[in-house]
Amino acid sequence: MGVKTPYPEILKIFEALILHVQSASHYRILGLVPSWYPLEISTDGRSIDPEEFIKKSFFLQCFLNEAEEFWQTHNTGMLASGLWVEAALMRDGSYLEATALIQEEQRFIIVQRYQPELVTLQPVLQKAREEHLAHGQELEVRNHVEAQLGSQLAESEQVRDDVLAVLDHLQLTIIMIDEHNVVTYVSPAACHLFTLDKQNLVGGLWPDVLPLTAEQSRQIQEQRALPEGNRIAVGISLQKKHQALLEIEIEVHDDPRDYQRTILFLKDRTEVEDLRRQLIGQAHFEQLIGKSPSMQVIYKKIREISPVDVPVLIQGETGTGKELVAQALHRLSARKGKPFVAINCAGLTDSLLGSQLFGHKRGAFTGAVSDHEGFFEAAEGGILFLDEIGDMPLTVQTTLLRVLQEKEIIRLGESRPRKVNVRVIAATHQNLQDLVAQGAFRSDLLYRIRIARLDLPPLRERREDIPLLSEAFFGQARAVTSKYDVQEISADAMQTLLRYHWPGNVRELKSTFEYALIHCQKNHIQPSDLPPELHDSATPILSLRSSPRDEREEILAALEQVKGKRAQAAKLLGMSRSTFYRRLSELGISPEECSL
Amino acid sequence: MKEGALIHKKICMLGGFAVGKTSLVKRFVTGQFSEKYQTTIGVKIDQKSQKVDETDMVLVLWDVYGEDDFQKVRASYLQGSAGYLLVVDGTRKETVDVAGQLKALAIQTMGSVPYVLLINKSDLRDSWQVESKLYEDLARNACLVLETSAKTGEGVELAFAELAKQMLKA
Q: Would you say B126 and B87 are in contact if contact means Cβ atoms under 8 Å apart?
């Protein structure tokens, strides 16, 4: 139709179907009909009716509508249909693509065929989409895993919270330590035990943050190094500020999840230890030593009497520790911060004792060159301990009774009374009731001073305390004599100590050890190191003193040995100073004899 | 569209890529299914005869490539459709959004024609991310919402039959 085909060879190579659009429904094939053309063609290679081709293709029919709009709105250019596959048209599954052209008002449709393998877009798009899908699946798996882990984490946290709540509820005292010695967990009960905040403990090195001594830390570390089955609990004492001593037992366990981590279980055994002590008896009380039932009774009475501000009478043989009991009463009373003044009433004349107790005015008697404050005034607010009150002269007893009743004293030589606030604790080795009967002691004073009473047992009546006392005195004697190479008391020596009847009581036992240490040549005390009187249990030392003459000679010998120093002589004889003075008086040993 | 005395109805398969459009058509036309994913380039056109209420008709199925960032669906492909199947992959909730965009394009291009919403891959229901609340908007005005599986064939026949019925009514 007058249209010249400029490049028929090229069109032949591309095997394109070129339709010249002559009217809305009339088409003519230009050039050769391509080999892929699905319809019958004439022998000269030209289709008779291309409209049949168009009619068979639903896609092309639609595209022609789109092309019509394009041609109407454009004078030049082209519009591509995009690829399509139409089984009814191309049974081999090949792709077709149509292009609408307009050139010099001439309209054309060019249809090209592509074998599937030649559609280059396909593998690219396929790969991109597969990767997208794989990525999506990966993302989904990750999200799923994340959700699962999140759920497991939440579950674990819940379990952990539950376990911690249970631990807290059970008041278990636990500290967890990691492999780097860092504290990772402290239970509230442990914080409470140490009176420390959690934040001060968690994250720190355990030897630094736990209030333990270097030795206690070393013991725990030592246990950590052992296999779990071989470990023993570490017992520690912990002194907290303003609180009683805590007794704590620490068990060292491996974390079952990680053997490099450690769990410390702390048990507060303070109460248990207290109860245990109560059960087996208290071995020490203030400066008193002894766990015998008779001493437990004494400790109990001291506790009961000390806070009650009344006079006390302590009775007991010499050397039983009457002054120590008086000191304990002082320390446990409300007067503990005030003076404790002790005076021995034995061996003093009534005027001297009166002067010492109540004071005197200058010129009150010969030698009273200045005003003198008596022991009552010196003990103001505190305690006045009157030892050997049984030896107190009757005149002084009378004055003392008045002082106790009126709570005021009058210095010798004065008429003006002075108010005093003093608690009197009296002690004696004598039976005051007998003295009252003999008229040597005022009954009204006795009733006044024995409102509270304590009867100390002699050592022979509490022999079970001898080993305990021996250990204590042995230690003291080692320190005094500096003989630290003496390690122990032999069993034989202990037997000797147990057999002896101890007329001088605890004081005698104490001096026995000083004697023994001085004589000991080995690393343990043997019976031969003990004083000779201990070896003749059939002849108690008391019998040696049963004769006043012998005792008088003994005292004089002792005085001679220590050049008249009475305190040293008393010590040498295993007597208290008060007993010594009393015996001096009783045996009629004059001061002059003492000085000889 | 008519060929001879038979009624021809153009149906577009619309949805994101890899939601199973080609597999649904293949299951419907040939009764087969392939596990291998083969992305569709351009448009694949198939036909299947369908009898609806004693009326024989030919469904011309336009399996349009899946829309994604690489390829946007040409509006011209939708022109002349009597209805469409809007396909969502139950295992990928992002395909709900793509379906929403295609539904908007379909309404813009074809007006209000019948469509059936298919939540496909019901054989993988354990892995589904799509809940009914997610596709509430898509389901609005749909003549039917079906859970389908090209793999098992669940809901496939019913989907095409129902759409054909609605197209015939329209």
A: no
Q: Do residue B1 and residue A58 have CB atoms under 8 angstroms apart?
A: yes
Report the distance separating Cα A106 and Cα A83, nearest Å: 24
Place of tokens 């593998």: A123
Residues A397/A441, Cβ–Cβ less than 8 Å = yes
Taking 80 as the threshold, does the pLDDT of residue A546 lie above it? no
Task: Output the CA torsion B159→B160→B166→B167 (10° steps).
Answer: 150
**Burial of A160: CB neighbours in 10 Å, binned 0-12, 13-18, 19+:** exposed
Q: Rounded to an integer, what distance in angstroms lies between the CA atom of residue B91 and that of residue B88?
A: 9
Whether the predicted pLDDT of A541 surpasses 60: no
Q: What is the 3-state secondary structure (H, E, C) of A229-297?
A: HHCCCEEEEEECCCCCEEEEEEEEEEECCEEEEEEEEEEECHHHHHHHHHHHCCCEECCEECCCHHHHH
Kindly report the three-state secondary structure assignment for every residue of A120-170.
CHHHHHHHHHHHHHHHHHHHHHHHHHHHHHHHHHHHHHHHHHHHHHHHHHH
Strand B6-15 and strand B83-89: the pairing is: parallel
Q: Which of A58, A122, A125 sits opposite B45 (nearest CB)?
A: A58
Q: Give the E-state strand segments of A48-94 in sequence order.
A: 77-86
Q: Are A74 and A102 in contact (CB under 8 A)?
A: yes
Question: Would you call B76 and A133 a contact, using CB atoms and an 8 Å cutoff?
Answer: no
CB A106 within 8 A of CB A3: yes
Residue A387 inside a domain? The answer is yes
| Least Cα separation, residue A198 to chain B (angstroms) | 45
Domain extents for chain B?
2-169
Token reading at A415: 């008429």
Tokens read off for A20: 């010249």
Q: What pLDDT sits at residue B1? A: 45
B17 contacts B134 by C-beta, under 8 angstroms: no
pLDDT of residue A544: 31
* ipTM value for the complex: 0.90
Cβ of A121 within 8 Å of Cβ of B92? The answer is no
Lateral strand order in the sheet of A234-239: A183-186, A174-177, A258-268, A245-255, A234-239
Any domain includes A95: yes
* B47 vs A contacts (CB less than 8 Å): 87-88
Are A244 and A330 members of one domain? no
Q: Which domain holds residue A450?
A: 284-455
The answer to whether B111 contacts chain A (CB < 8 Å) is no
CATH numeric code, B2-169: 3.40.50.300
Which tokens hold the place of A397? 């007893």
Fill in the amino acid letter for B117: L
Which residue from A minimizes the CA distance to B16? A129
Q: What distance in Å separates residue A126's CA from the closest CA in chain B?
A: 6
Query: Picking from A38-42, A219-223, A496-500, which range would have the lowest pLDDT averaged per residue?
Result: A38-42
Q: Do residues A474 and A530 lie in contact, with contact meaning Cβ atoms separated by under 8 Å?
A: no
Per-residue pLDDT reduced to its tens digit, A363-402:
878 778 888 899 999 999 999 999 999 999 998 899 899 9
Q: Is residue A135 part of a domain?
A: no
> Which residues pair with residue A452 across a beta bridge?
A312
| Residue A145 buriedness (CB in 10 A; 0-12 / 13-18 / 19+) | exposed
Same domain, A333 and A368: yes
The packing angle between helices A491-499 and A466-481, to 10°, is 120
Indicate the residue type of A301: K
The Cα B145–Cα B133 span in angstroms is 13
What DSSP string describes A90-111? -TT--EEEEEEEEETTEEEEEE
